[in-house]
Amino acid sequence: GIIGLSIGSFLNVVILRTPKGESISLPASHCVTCKHPLKWYHNIPVFSWVFLGGKCAYCKEKISIQYPIIEILTSFIFISTAYRASSVIETFIIATLFTMLLALSAIDFKYKAVPVNISIPALFISLFVNDFLVSLTDALILAGGFALLRIIVSWIIKKEAMGEADIIIAGIIGATLGVEYGLVAIYISALIALPVFLIISKKGYELPFIPFLALGLYLTWSFIDQVKLVVDMIYG
Description:
mainly alpha
Protein backbone atom coordinates (compact mmCIF):
# COMPACT_ATOMS: atom_id res chain seq x y z
CA GLY A 1 0.00 0.00 0.00
CA ILE A 2 2.83 2.40 0.83
CA ILE A 3 4.53 1.58 -2.47
CA GLY A 4 1.22 2.26 -4.20
CA LEU A 5 0.89 5.66 -2.51
CA SER A 6 4.39 6.62 -3.63
CA ILE A 7 3.77 5.52 -7.20
CA GLY A 8 0.42 7.31 -7.14
CA SER A 9 2.20 10.54 -6.28
CA PHE A 10 4.43 10.12 -9.33
CA LEU A 11 1.41 9.10 -11.40
CA ASN A 12 -0.12 12.52 -10.83
CA VAL A 13 2.93 14.06 -12.49
CA VAL A 14 2.53 11.69 -15.45
CA ILE A 15 -1.17 12.52 -15.78
CA LEU A 16 -0.53 16.25 -15.63
CA ARG A 17 2.53 16.54 -17.85
CA THR A 18 2.38 13.75 -20.45
CA PRO A 19 -0.59 15.11 -22.46
CA LYS A 20 1.20 18.47 -22.64
CA GLY A 21 4.40 16.91 -23.95
CA GLU A 22 6.32 18.03 -20.86
CA SER A 23 9.13 16.16 -19.13
CA ILE A 24 8.00 14.07 -16.16
CA SER A 25 11.32 14.63 -14.38
CA LEU A 26 12.18 18.30 -15.01
CA PRO A 27 11.43 20.75 -13.61
CA ALA A 28 11.10 19.31 -10.11
CA SER A 29 7.78 19.31 -8.27
CA HIS A 30 6.24 22.76 -8.19
CA CYS A 31 2.93 24.52 -7.79
CA VAL A 32 1.15 24.60 -11.16
CA THR A 33 -0.18 28.08 -10.35
CA CYS A 34 2.69 30.06 -8.80
CA LYS A 35 5.46 27.72 -10.10
CA HIS A 36 7.18 27.78 -6.69
CA PRO A 37 9.32 24.65 -6.06
CA LEU A 38 7.85 22.38 -3.39
CA LYS A 39 9.63 21.07 -0.31
CA TRP A 40 9.88 17.32 0.23
CA TYR A 41 7.27 17.46 2.98
CA HIS A 42 4.81 19.04 0.55
CA ASN A 43 4.92 15.82 -1.50
CA ILE A 44 3.96 13.23 1.09
CA PRO A 45 1.12 11.30 -0.58
CA VAL A 46 -2.36 12.19 0.74
CA PHE A 47 -1.07 13.53 4.08
CA SER A 48 0.46 16.68 2.60
CA TRP A 49 -2.78 17.51 0.81
CA VAL A 50 -4.73 17.05 4.06
CA PHE A 51 -2.30 19.01 6.24
CA LEU A 52 -2.12 21.86 3.71
CA GLY A 53 -5.89 22.02 3.63
CA GLY A 54 -5.91 21.31 -0.08
CA LYS A 55 -4.07 24.57 -0.82
CA CYS A 56 -0.59 25.54 -2.02
CA ALA A 57 1.77 26.34 0.86
CA TYR A 58 2.89 29.50 -0.96
CA CYS A 59 0.14 31.06 -3.08
CA LYS A 60 -2.77 29.37 -1.24
CA GLU A 61 -4.37 28.36 -4.53
CA LYS A 62 -6.51 25.23 -4.28
CA ILE A 63 -4.80 21.93 -5.08
CA SER A 64 -6.95 19.61 -7.16
CA ILE A 65 -8.53 16.75 -5.24
CA GLN A 66 -7.31 14.60 -8.13
CA TYR A 67 -3.97 14.28 -6.35
CA PRO A 68 -5.11 12.39 -3.22
CA ILE A 69 -7.71 10.44 -5.21
CA ILE A 70 -5.11 9.08 -7.64
CA GLU A 71 -2.74 8.27 -4.76
CA ILE A 72 -5.43 6.41 -2.82
CA LEU A 73 -6.62 4.52 -5.91
CA THR A 74 -3.06 3.46 -6.76
CA SER A 75 -2.52 2.28 -3.20
CA PHE A 76 -5.78 0.32 -3.40
CA ILE A 77 -4.68 -1.24 -6.70
CA PHE A 78 -1.45 -2.50 -5.15
CA ILE A 79 -3.16 -3.83 -2.01
CA SER A 80 -5.99 -5.58 -3.86
CA THR A 81 -3.61 -7.01 -6.46
CA ALA A 82 -1.30 -8.37 -3.76
CA TYR A 83 -4.32 -10.03 -2.14
CA ARG A 84 -5.39 -11.67 -5.40
CA ALA A 85 -2.04 -12.46 -7.10
CA SER A 86 -0.17 -15.71 -6.52
CA SER A 87 3.33 -14.23 -6.27
CA VAL A 88 5.24 -11.00 -5.69
CA ILE A 89 6.29 -10.90 -9.36
CA GLU A 90 2.70 -11.29 -10.55
CA THR A 91 1.64 -8.60 -8.09
CA PHE A 92 4.04 -6.04 -9.53
CA ILE A 93 3.26 -6.94 -13.15
CA ILE A 94 -0.50 -6.71 -12.68
CA ALA A 95 -0.35 -3.69 -10.35
CA THR A 96 1.91 -1.84 -12.79
CA LEU A 97 -0.49 -2.63 -15.62
CA PHE A 98 -3.55 -1.43 -13.70
CA THR A 99 -1.67 1.68 -12.57
CA MET A 100 -0.87 2.56 -16.18
CA LEU A 101 -4.52 2.00 -17.10
CA LEU A 102 -5.50 4.32 -14.26
CA ALA A 103 -3.24 7.00 -15.72
CA LEU A 104 -4.72 6.48 -19.19
CA SER A 105 -8.24 6.67 -17.76
CA ALA A 106 -7.54 9.92 -15.92
CA ILE A 107 -5.92 11.47 -18.99
CA ASP A 108 -8.79 10.32 -21.21
CA PHE A 109 -11.33 11.85 -18.82
CA LYS A 110 -9.44 15.13 -18.50
CA TYR A 111 -7.91 15.67 -21.94
CA LYS A 112 -9.80 13.29 -24.25
CA ALA A 113 -6.43 11.91 -25.28
CA VAL A 114 -4.62 8.60 -24.83
CA PRO A 115 -0.80 8.93 -25.08
CA VAL A 116 0.80 6.07 -26.97
CA ASN A 117 3.90 6.36 -24.79
CA ILE A 118 1.75 4.93 -21.99
CA SER A 119 -0.70 2.67 -23.85
CA ILE A 120 1.92 0.80 -25.91
CA PRO A 121 4.17 0.00 -22.90
CA ALA A 122 1.02 -1.13 -21.04
CA LEU A 123 0.23 -3.49 -23.92
CA PHE A 124 3.78 -4.84 -23.80
CA ILE A 125 3.58 -5.46 -20.04
CA SER A 126 0.25 -7.27 -20.43
CA LEU A 127 1.93 -9.87 -22.65
CA PHE A 128 3.84 -11.12 -19.60
CA VAL A 129 0.79 -11.69 -17.39
CA ASN A 130 0.40 -15.20 -18.81
CA ASP A 131 2.36 -17.30 -21.30
CA PHE A 132 3.83 -14.82 -23.78
CA LEU A 133 2.76 -16.52 -27.02
CA VAL A 134 -0.74 -17.27 -25.71
CA SER A 135 -1.12 -13.68 -24.48
CA LEU A 136 0.13 -12.32 -27.80
CA THR A 137 -2.37 -14.46 -29.73
CA ASP A 138 -5.29 -13.45 -27.50
CA ALA A 139 -4.26 -9.79 -27.68
CA LEU A 140 -4.21 -9.90 -31.48
CA ILE A 141 -7.61 -11.61 -31.61
CA LEU A 142 -9.39 -9.07 -29.42
CA ALA A 143 -7.56 -6.09 -30.90
CA GLY A 144 -8.36 -7.36 -34.39
CA GLY A 145 -11.99 -7.86 -33.41
CA PHE A 146 -12.21 -4.29 -32.13
CA ALA A 147 -10.53 -2.98 -35.28
CA LEU A 148 -13.06 -4.82 -37.46
CA LEU A 149 -15.92 -3.56 -35.28
CA ARG A 150 -14.59 -0.03 -35.62
CA ILE A 151 -14.60 -0.28 -39.41
CA ILE A 152 -18.12 -1.73 -39.60
CA VAL A 153 -19.76 0.61 -37.09
CA SER A 154 -17.98 3.66 -38.49
CA TRP A 155 -19.27 2.75 -41.95
CA ILE A 156 -22.82 2.37 -40.64
CA ILE A 157 -22.97 5.62 -38.65
CA LYS A 158 -20.78 7.54 -41.14
CA LYS A 159 -18.27 8.70 -38.48
CA GLU A 160 -15.53 7.29 -36.32
CA ALA A 161 -17.12 4.89 -33.81
CA MET A 162 -14.12 4.48 -31.52
CA GLY A 163 -10.52 5.57 -31.22
CA GLU A 164 -7.41 3.61 -32.05
CA ALA A 165 -6.56 3.59 -28.33
CA ASP A 166 -9.67 1.47 -27.65
CA ILE A 167 -8.16 -1.19 -29.90
CA ILE A 168 -4.93 -1.16 -27.88
CA ILE A 169 -6.88 -1.51 -24.62
CA ALA A 170 -8.81 -4.42 -26.14
CA GLY A 171 -5.46 -6.05 -26.86
CA ILE A 172 -4.43 -5.53 -23.22
CA ILE A 173 -7.67 -7.14 -22.05
CA GLY A 174 -7.12 -10.11 -24.35
CA ALA A 175 -3.53 -10.59 -23.20
CA THR A 176 -4.49 -10.38 -19.53
CA LEU A 177 -7.66 -12.49 -19.47
CA GLY A 178 -7.72 -14.45 -22.68
CA VAL A 179 -10.40 -14.09 -25.36
CA GLU A 180 -13.31 -15.72 -23.50
CA TYR A 181 -13.00 -13.80 -20.25
CA GLY A 182 -11.80 -10.74 -22.13
CA LEU A 183 -15.22 -10.62 -23.80
CA VAL A 184 -16.79 -10.84 -20.35
CA ALA A 185 -14.70 -7.85 -19.25
CA ILE A 186 -15.80 -5.85 -22.30
CA TYR A 187 -19.44 -6.80 -21.62
CA ILE A 188 -19.11 -5.62 -18.00
CA SER A 189 -17.52 -2.39 -19.25
CA ALA A 190 -20.48 -1.76 -21.55
CA LEU A 191 -22.98 -2.48 -18.77
CA ILE A 192 -21.31 0.07 -16.50
CA ALA A 193 -20.88 2.66 -19.24
CA LEU A 194 -24.44 2.48 -20.60
CA PRO A 195 -26.31 4.15 -17.70
CA VAL A 196 -23.56 6.75 -17.37
CA PHE A 197 -23.81 7.47 -21.09
CA LEU A 198 -27.60 7.84 -20.91
CA ILE A 199 -27.25 10.35 -18.08
CA ILE A 200 -24.51 12.58 -19.47
CA SER A 201 -25.36 12.37 -23.18
CA LYS A 202 -28.24 14.77 -22.53
CA LYS A 203 -25.66 17.34 -21.41
CA GLY A 204 -23.64 17.01 -24.60
CA TYR A 205 -20.61 15.48 -22.88
CA GLU A 206 -18.55 13.00 -24.88
CA LEU A 207 -18.04 9.88 -22.79
CA PRO A 208 -14.58 8.26 -23.00
CA PHE A 209 -14.81 4.46 -23.06
CA ILE A 210 -11.27 3.59 -21.96
CA PRO A 211 -11.91 4.19 -18.23
CA PHE A 212 -14.79 1.72 -18.42
CA LEU A 213 -12.72 -0.85 -20.31
CA ALA A 214 -10.03 -0.51 -17.63
CA LEU A 215 -12.62 -0.92 -14.87
CA GLY A 216 -14.15 -3.94 -16.59
CA LEU A 217 -10.71 -5.54 -16.86
CA TYR A 218 -9.93 -4.83 -13.19
CA LEU A 219 -13.25 -6.23 -11.93
CA THR A 220 -13.06 -9.34 -14.11
CA TRP A 221 -9.46 -10.08 -13.09
CA SER A 222 -10.19 -9.43 -9.41
CA PHE A 223 -13.24 -11.71 -9.38
CA ILE A 224 -12.11 -14.19 -12.01
CA ASP A 225 -13.12 -17.23 -9.93
CA GLN A 226 -16.68 -15.95 -9.64
CA VAL A 227 -16.71 -15.02 -13.32
CA LYS A 228 -15.57 -18.52 -14.28
CA LEU A 229 -18.29 -20.03 -12.13
CA VAL A 230 -20.98 -17.94 -13.82
CA VAL A 231 -19.64 -18.71 -17.30
CA ASP A 232 -19.55 -22.44 -16.50
CA MET A 233 -23.16 -22.26 -15.27
CA ILE A 234 -24.27 -20.52 -18.48
CA TYR A 235 -22.55 -23.00 -20.77
CA GLY A 236 -23.35 -26.02 -18.63
